[in-house]
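Below is how a single chain appears once it has passed through the pipeline. First comes the sequence as given, then the structure the pipeline wrote out for it. We keep one example in the README because the format questions we get most often are answered faster by looking than by reading.
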Amino acid sequence: MTADATASSSGAVTATTQAPTTSTSTPTGSDSDAAESTSSASATGTSAASGDSTSMGFKFDIGTEETDGPTCQTKCGNTDWSYVWIANSGEHTLSKIDTRDMTEVGRYQTRPQPAGNPSRTSVSIDAKAVAVANRAGGLTKVWARKEYCADKNGNGAIETSTGKNDVLAFDLDECIAWHTPFPEATTQRPVAWTSGVYNDVTCEYEDQKIWTAAANGTIGGTWPCDGAAGIFVYRVNGDTGVVEDTIHMPEVTCGGTFGPYGAAVDYNNDLWMYIWSAYTIVHVSYDTLEYETFPGGNYGITVDNKGRVWTDAASRYDPMTMQWVNQIGDQPGVGGSGVAQDLKGRIWKSTTGGVGWVDAETMLIGDTVILPAQGNARGIGVDVDGYIWAVILGGTTAHRIHPDTYEITTYDGLNQPYTYSDMAGGQINNVTCNPPN
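Resulting structure:
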């Protein structure tokens, strides 16, 4: 099935449907490595999120639980609001777009220095915050709602961006929770929240961590990984931005590449990461910090709710069988895009002229949705309502696709976006709330 696009007078575009080798090592870093990176600011929120988590026929909640405290209604995440967070790489900013009314409601600098070149973004399971990694080094957390932001200047009001044309200086935006510099990084792309631990009494997720990774190469080198002694994986405290664990992987060769490229977590909060052009997948255990590497992968990466790893070529790796399986049928890729599982179990990726999906079980290709012409979709994501998102590489548009009708609604106002991680929070919700039986 394909969809043909038409433009409305408002500028929004709508459409109506017409046996790898593995090796395992132990981590070489520890909590003492946290001194290598510190946070510059910290803010915490106290309000509990609650509400109906059913939308468009999909449910994220596991069910109501009776406790000695309040009755928890949204154990598997929040649906009171929904934002997609898209990095404007060329502008060094981060856009917050309301996925329901398709308006941009905030734009933020992503580190104190103006030239951060951000790309990957990751949304926490409770939707309270986003983390954004900068290619030039540095990890930043931004609160999603004013009620979680801190009144840093003491004037009794929260000063924060209200939209595209209202970008505050980094130190003045009070919804920027913290920034952790990584001054030695010559490339830092991957970022992925863990779910944390759910508290049945407070109805809140606690102890949330953030995975990120970097290579410390030669500044000014031809490739960001040139001169790097392997790669470093970091586990960061989501509340404070402090690096709690550092894992050095000296044998992970990334010279002549962009290095650590994309990341996602599984239902155990383990990290899965792709090393660009080295065709290497890295897996890190959340519990032990032990890691393994194995050949395979091709650009984008995600993990489905059965713990299987996917890349944008619609290739699926099953850790249980240690085998890769490829799509069945002809649905060509476009040389690199994100990949995401929707709430129907389909795997979406960019394809010629638009985006398409593959059945996660049979590996048979499904429909293709033709997007309004502007370029290739690089960012692919799914929001908590089940809509599929496609962000055009280097353009100005992000498209929201209805999962049933394939109707397209477009936001036009970005600036050279480059995002293909869990930019709307659907992946962390899916693997946490719908784990394998």
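The domain at 23-324 is CATH 2.40.128.630 (Lipocalin).

See the next section for the split statistics.
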